[in-house]
Amino acid sequence: MVQEAEKYRSEDEANKLRIEAKNGLENYAPDKKVVEVTVETINWLDANQSAEKEEYEAKQKELEGDPIMQKLFPTLAPPVRKAPRLKIKRHASIV
Predict the structure, then answer these.
(1) Would you say which domain of life the source belongs to (predicted)?
(2) C-beta separation of 4 from 46 below 8 A
């Protein structure tokens, strides 16, 4: 059993390093996306100084709808509305 463990030790170590590298990339990717979206938005703002109110609002909705941004900044997402509570009238019971 010990011999078998030694046999696969280097394979396990290589697999561990591969998974760590993959996790590092997965953790870096959302940060990179946030930077890209931010730069894109700033460039759009610079190029559209005279945009109409609706254009600014549309650009913000586009930004809020980005899945990466929603995941990282859930407060950017529009609030979820709760269903209105129904009022139930209570009648006096007849005795």
Answers:
(1) Eukaryota
(2) no
